[in-house]
Structure formats: C-alpha cells, structure tokens
Amino acid sequence: MKNLLTDVEIARSHKPRPISEIADKIGVSSGELEQYGADKAKVDLFIFERLKNSDDGKLILVTAITPTPAGEGKTTTTIGLGDALSELGYKTAIAIREPSLGPCFGVKGGAAGGGYSQVIPMEDINLHFTGDFHAITTAHNLLAAMLDNSLFQGNPLEIDEHSITFKRVLDMNDRTLRNVVIGLGGKVNGVTRESGFEITTASEIMALLCLATSREDLQKRLDNIIVASNLRGEPVTAKDLGASNAMAVVLKDAIKPNLVQTLEGTPTFVHGGPFANIAHGCNSILATKLALKVADYVVTEAGFASDLGAEKFFDIKCRTAGVFPSAVVIVATIRALKYHGGSTIEELKNENLETLANGFANLKKHCENIEAFGIKPIVSINKFVSDTDAEIALLSKFCEENNIDYAVSTSWSDGGKGALNLAKHVFNHVHDINCFDYIYSLDMPIMRKVEQIALKVYGAKDVRFLPPAEKEIKRITEMGFGHLPVCIAKTQSSLSDDPTIKGRPTGFRFTVRDVKLAAGAGFIVIYSGNIMTMPGLPKTPSAENIKFNSDGVIDGLF
Q: For site-directed labelling of 313, which of 281, 290, 456, 465 has its Cα 20 to 30 A away?
C-alpha cells in the first residue's frame, strides 16, 4: 500500500496529460474540442452527427448500499473500475456528475473520487470547473426575474400569485434562504410575495439539461417549464413569459459535455449534477451517449443507493435516453454494513462480526432491487485499512451462500490495479443476456407508479397520500401529464422515508406529503418525509478548512 497522502496531495503528484491526447484515445478530434486550458475541454455537439452510425459500447452502472456518514466510496470505485478496464486493454470511458459547491463547502469537501482513483484537475472540477453550474443558476434565475417582472409590469398573463411554484436557486448550502419575502421596500421594487431559494442541483433547469438529448430538445424542455397558473387555472410557462429562448442562449456552453481524465489517463466525461435525494441523480444523457459512441465500455454512477439513484437511472434516464445497462455494480463497505447492523460511527474501526452480519440485510435488499430490474449485480467490497480478514471472510461467505457475485476492491489505495479483479467480474457480466425492465409502466396512474416503487424498491407495506398530494396528483392528471415518470424525493439515509431507520426496514408506511410537476424535466416530483431542497451548513463546515497555503496552493479539498 502506498503512503497515506491526502487526496489533494495525490492529485498534485500526477501531471495531467494534455487533454488533446486524452481525446485522441477515444477518437475525439482537436476540431471537436473547446479547450479550457491544457487539461480540460468541452466537446462540441456536432460530434454526434459524425458518430451517428457508430455502434454503442456497453454501459456499466455503479450504485451502492444505503449511504452512511462514514462514506462508501462509490465515485472512487467508479473511477477505479474504469481505470482497471483500461489497464486490461479495453477502450474505456467514465461518465460522472459534476460536484456542487454546496457539499464541497458543507460536508464533503470535494467530490472527484479519492486516493489513487481520482479525476483531475481536482481543484478545478470541485471549484467552478467550466462554469456549467453558474450558467444553470443564471438561466434559472433569469426565468424567476422575468416572472416577477411580468407581475410588476401589470401582470398581462393574469398570473395567480398564489399559484407560483418557481423559486430562485443558489449553488450553496444556506438554510436562511429557504423561505424569504421578496419585493419589499415599496412598489418600485416589485410585487411583494413569499418565495424562497433551492440549491442549484435541485433546479428543474439542472434536471432538464441532464435529460436533454439535443440542443433542440433542450429548447423544447425550457419552453415547457411551468412556473405558475393564471386566474383561469391554466399553466403559465417559460415560453409564455418569453424567457426560454434567452435561457437556451445562457446554456449554450453548459449543454456541451466536459472531458477530463483520471490519474491514470482514462477519458472521463464530467457533466451535470442533480442530487439523487431531491432530483434524478445522474450525469447528463449527452455525456453518457457520447461516451457510449467513443468507447467500448462506459462506467457511470447514479447518486446514493439503488433505491434512489439507480431506480431513477433506470426508470427516468434509461427511458429518456434509450440506453440500457449491461452490468450493475453495488458498492458495499464493511464499515457501512456494521453501521446498518447497529454499530455507532465511533465503533466502525473495531472488528464486530455480529453487527456486520446484522447489516447484511441492507446489502441483500439492494441486490434484490437490481434483480427486480432484470439484472444480476456484482458486489464490490470497497476495502478499508480497518477491515479485518475475519470481516472480509464473513461478507464473502454471505455473498457466496446467497449466490451473489462479488469482488474485493482496493481502488482507493491502489488505483486501477486495485480494481482489476472487480473489472474481470464485470467483464464476465457485460456480455450476458439480461431481461432489463422497468419497475412501472408509464400508462399506470401516478399513485400506482409511486406504490410500485415504494413496495418493490423501498420495501414498504403501503403508501399514504396526504390530502395536498392527492389534490395535486388529480390536477396534474387532469392537465394531461399523468403519463410522466415519477421522481421521488426522500431521505438517502434509509430505504424508508425515515432517516433514523437503518438496515432493511419492513412493515412501514411510506407517506407522500406533496407533489410537484416538472414538465420541462419531464417527470413528476414526489416529496416524502422532511426532505430539503435547500440544505444547510453543518456545525463545522468544510469551508473552514479550505484555504491557500504559504505557497499559494489550495488546501482543504479532499
């Protein structure tokens, strides 16, 4: 094992190759690149015309068991697996999401992988990158400003102020902005009303940009964003406000996939960043489809666990993109399984075979979830230095007794070499014939779709819809949007809608408290539990440790 350096120290010890060299590995020409310095670039969308008759590669999804405060290393495993496939001689690309500044300054401190399985330039990717999030924030807030300007200028669209659902966004954790009053200070400052902010990753603009299949599709989705109703109860859209064309112009570069590299030089598309607990949790369709056109094997990830990111990857992204995974990896750690089995965070470094065994139920459920979509998963045991031989042996025995394919991975400490065994297991699966299917059909009523997910994926006994949710579902159906997929916003910390319930909850009632139509994104958001679309900072934010050192180099990102 290499010396235990910090992520940023490891990243700085590797000199990035010129991005043109990385692009050349997957057949992307210099004329199709828009470089942002020497080590990152955007790829122009006209490349799709050149590649339209090319065959697609095989898509590999990486998901995980229910996350814990200890972290599971899903992105690290994704990058390590991509590097391992490259090392085995396969033409490989990786497609992942962009980090949000909110978590970077809040609790995570960075989101570009870890150890010797990272994407670089790490600091740039974590901080502003190519400006995509800022463009999305601007496009979103342009629409909000034009909505309020329409009210101020005599309300020609006869907007019902009480029906306005469109808030402003900011790519920062700031709980004080969840609920605000705007237009204070007299008539000249606009119409006074209640509003609020959401984090940019929860923006409908973020979701629709990641689900757009072309620039034309992006424009159509922007046109269709519903911000309010008029006094007759009819929807008012971004197109009605005359905002959608300008929004598309603001997003002219943000729609183009970003190309970077891993520490080992594997081409990596980093594009888009919706959260999986409040949105659909996947990188952009354009980045994924481009990766599939230029590589034989594409490793991607979906946010959080199989109940959130993977379910939405299948039921929303795959439907929209017309792509299907050939293999699915579930990342599990000894630490997380012990946590789900009853150990406290402080006890996770201590061997405990009893709580480990108790936590297997969580892993088993996530395996069953992937199998419900018709795919047999591979479990990646992401090994930490605190894991004992006895614990690894017990988890291995559990997988063998339950006919679960598995491999131990040390990609954090060993990079691609640490994931070679995992890569070989994955390669054995990608050419299998699977019977992929969705959890629900689009012609089901909205409530039935939610019930299918809650019962089959979460393990609930039944679903309760509160009156406001029932009323909104009825209205959305009457408007003609009942055919859309559903995007459930719930806690990531439990299979249930109660974040305190660990392991594999059973016999619980899943409660839907609110519903929102995201017509531009093309899905219906279902809210359960106390899910927040604007997070707050923790008691000790990661931002307190991010700084320039005496050499003018950034410290504190990890």
A: 465
HSE of 527 in the Cβ direction (CA atoms, 13 Å)?
16
| Cβ contact 331:73 at 8 Å | yes
Domains in the chain, please, with CATH? 7-100+114-126+257-430 (3.40.50.300), 132-250 (3.30.1510.10), 446-527 (3.10.410.10)
Active site members:
74, 76, 97, 108, 276, 304, 384, 412
Residue 468 preceded by cis peptide, ω within 30:
no
DSSP state of 175: G
Only one residue has tokens 């054995």, namely 428
Q: Which residues contact 266 (CB under 8 A, 6 or more apart)?
A: 79, 82, 83, 86, 92, 93, 94, 416
- Tokens read off for 65: 């068991």
Q: Are 388 and 351 in contact (CB under 8 A)?
A: yes
Q: How far is Cα 381 from Cα 360, in angstroms, rounded to an integer?
A: 12
Q: Per the structure block, which two tokens stand in for 408? A: 């131990």
Q: What tens digit of pLDDT does each residue of 197-225 get? A: 999 999 999 999 999 999 999 999 999 99
The answer to whether the CB of 101 falls within 8 A of the CB of 537 is: no
Which amino acid, 466?
L
CA distance from start to end of the chain:
19
pTM value is: 0.96
At 279-306, the pLDDT tens digits run 999 999 999 999 999 999 999 999 999 9
Amino acid at 549: N
pLDDT digits (tens, 9 = 90+) for 54-81: 999 999 999 999 999 888 899 999 999 9
Residue 139 phi, psi (nearest 5):
-60, -40
Beta bridge partners of 547: 555
